[in-house]
Amino acid sequence: MRIESVTALAFGALNGVALDFSPQLTVVFGPNEAGKSTWHAAIYASLCGMRRAQGLTKHDRKFARLRRPWKSDAWEVRAMVRLDSGRRVELRQDLSDLARCSAVDADFGRDVAGEILNEGTPDAARWLGLDRRSFLAVACVHQAQIQSVVEDAESLQGELQRAAASAARESTAAEAIARLEDFQREQVGQDARHSTKPLRRAKVRAEEAGMALASAREKHTEWLSLEARARQLAVKADGFASELRVLRAVRARKEADLWKVRLDRARSLASVYPNGPPTLAPADVASADEVASALSLWSSRPEVRPLTGPSAAEIRAEIETLPHFPAGDRTPRPEVLAAMKAFERAAQALQLHRMQQPPSAPVPDGKGLAPDQLRELARDLETVAPPVDSGLEAAHREAQHRLIEIRGIRLRRRLIRGVALAALLGGAALWAAVGYWIGGAVAAAGVIALVWLSVRRGETNREPALRVSLEIEAKIGAQRKALVDARSRVYAARAQIADAGLPLNPVELRRLADELVLADRDRQLQGDWSRNREKLQSELAETSQELARGLQNAGAAGAADLAAAFQTYEQACRLRAQQAERAAARESLENQLSDREAAEKAVADAQAQCSNAERRIMAALAACGLDAPDAEAAGDALRHWQEERKERLARFDRAAREYAELNALLDGGTLEELEARAFQHQREAEELAAASGPIPGIAVETDLDQEIRTAEKLASDAGLAAKSAGDRALDRAQFVPGISEAEEALASAQQELERVTRLNRTLTLTLEFLKRAEERAHRDIAPHLAAGLRRWLPGVTQSRYREARVDPRDLSVQVLGTDDEWRDASLLSHGTAEQIYLLLRVVLAERLATTGETCPLILDDVLVQSDLARKHALLDAIVPISRERQVILFTQEEEVLRWAQANALAPDRVVLLPVPS
How many whole angstroms separate alpha carbon 911 and alpha carbon 889? Predict the structure, then answer.
């Protein structure tokens, strides 16, 4: 199908203007505001119109808002199209009154709108096997919407499947899947929280019935549990009451036993002290204190040890014979030592350096050339020219011959196609004019010829042969260039060597380069030796000055020989050190004198303390009326006296405590009153034991009062709990629901859920089968889409990408780069992605038009994102595309206009839109 002309009677800013188009390539140039986008939309509207069905889509409302006339109520466009069969049709799209839209055969005046009706209005895309939405997604390309074909991938699924299967126009797996999914949504639905469809309702009903049955069982179990709990609590309360009675009987028995023990102890103590409390004879407290003080002083007396060694007087006489400390350094100063070491190192380094002076060598004449230049000339002289591969030249001749053969085959195929079409048309005419058999035979021969041409179509594919020829030419060109470059290097090297007067021998050139390197190295070594000698001489002078200053600061006499002056200074330091060592003994002797005087004073003080302790202990012995031969014996006698007095005091204290215990047992009463109280406790214990039954044994350390208080609380709490549990069980029995009714409701709900679930499984399995069929259709069409992209991809991307693959499900494209890595085309640079998806539009236009009609391409500023090289590559690709299908290219770029003016060939056209005023 080709668009011959479009007339905008009233469309946007256009009013009564028309554009004529070439059947191949038409470039429409205009600056901004010249109406390119309006003409682009007018072409689409004149072909496809708008849907007449009730209710406008979002796209229709937006289209109307942008494209309605500015100053008129009319809104109409017309187009003249020529089908591939030669039939010309005039399309009239009255967008303000869709009932007036029409499609008329321009030659016969017949109404052909019925052939292309789509949602109530004529849609020329139906001749291509498309509809107005898929035509917009494939053939009408805006610069800002090149990649929007991916967004419309879902709407193209049916077209892709029909193109893959070549089946009936109205039947695709996608449509069956859509109908089944609609049925599944309505009759089953999703298991979502807010869903109101059958599956969710059945599941909720089953869950509620299950919860009701579980609740009934739970309540019944709870009631039975409350009943059992009430009985258990009543038994527990009786047990606590019995335990309380036993504990009270045990406590009474224990109290009776304690009163009996108390009575027996009171009787025993009363028999020991019948006359009252015990008495203690008066003691000599003053004598006891004096004895204790004297014994303490005697025990703590110091030990008197005899002194050894020289006396204080002898040490004082030795101190007076010692010399005084000398003035001056006793050890050489560190800075003088460091300066001397530096002076010696500098002198030795200078002497060693003088012994290592390098010899001088002669310098050869290199004619002004460096060693690297000489070696490069030697390598150039030895360059071997590589030969050209004769096999490649033969392959190139064979590839050229193949191209000539393909050109002849294509010419013959065109001739056969023309004859076949003539036979087909002539057979149809003979059928109508002469008879059935003759016309059918001629037409069948034409059809067989066309089928044969279609089957043998691959024989005329010129692109693989052309690609092979270009690759061989590139390899031969590279080998020939390498040969020329090698010969040029040899000629240039010989000329330069001759001009310099050097030998043409590469070995001699390398030897001269080595001599130049050695001579340069000798000059560097001689210069380095001279610089190091000056540096060492300077260091020796500096260290000499530093040593002289150090000796002068230390008080050494100046001398011309610094080494001799240092030795004299070092000897003087040693003599002063010896004198200082003898004088240093004064401080040690003075310390010894101080220590000796302190020791002699301590001995005198100890002797005085011992004499005082001896006098005190003899006086205490006399005060106690005792006698002893010496102080040691007096101490023993006094300690024996203290032990006897301690025993007397202990006996008195024990008797006083027992008499106090007797008074506590009687508690202010008499022994007869205590006997009466013990008898009363014994009688109460016997009565409680008779009421409680057998009394178990209880540990002695048990706190019976605490146990009884605990038992009283437990018995009271258990009684209250038993009464409360009985009341709750009685109340709960009134509200226990029936279990059988809940079980019947659950069974009914589960049957309904099983029915809906079974239906869902059946639909899901059916959808899986259909989706597998859809996947097979995608696998059938994917290689064709990839092959179509591969046809133009290397040239447009300057061979950066050579292979492509397309997923028909979402029309995503991946391309293979020179690094053998597949990349998502949408993630490449914006310009590269747009170029790839523009090529995808071309392939879709070829593959989705399944009726035999060729689909035109209407492009609006699709090259603005491309650089200059890729822009020209795309334009060069558009030219052969336009020879197969009509291409209308709108542009505002001067570069595209210049290309079109330079490359357009008849019947191509270049249309210049008027500049807006």
Answer: 10
Q: CA dist 158 to 11, 173, 176, 670, 777, Å? A: 32, 8, 10, 124, 10
Tell me the whole-structure pTM to 2 decimals: 0.39
The number of residues in the chain equals: 917
Question: What sign does the CA torsion over 412, 414, 418, 421 have?
Answer: positive
**DSSP, res 558:** P
DSSP assignment of 145-198 equals GGGGGTTTTGGGHHHHHHHHH---TT--HHHHHHHHHHHHHHHT----TT--SH
| pLDDT at site 863 | 80
Domain range annotation of the chain: 1-130+853-917, 204-272+670-733, 339-366+503-560, 390-501
SS3 state of residue 913: coil
Contact between residue 378 and residue 510 where contact means Cβ atoms under 8 Å apart: yes
* Euclidean distance between CA atoms 603 and 311, whole angstroms: 13
The superfamily (CATH) of domain 1-130+853-917 is P-loop containing nucleotide triphosphate hydrolases (3.40.50.300)
Element (H, E) at 117: strand 117-118
Token readout for 22 is: 């070439």
**Distance from C-alpha of 621 to C-alpha of 616, rounded to nearest angstrom:** 9
Distance in angstroms (rounded) separating the CA atoms of residues 38 and 32: 11
> Which 3-state string (H, E, C) describes 823-879?
EEHHHCCHHHHHHHHHHHHHHHHHHHCCCCCCCCEEEECCCCCCCHHHHHHHHHHHH
Question: 823-875, pLDDT tens digit by residue?
Answer: 887 777 777 777 777 777 777 777 777 777 889 999 888 787 778 877 888 88
CA 916 to mean position of chain CA atoms: 55
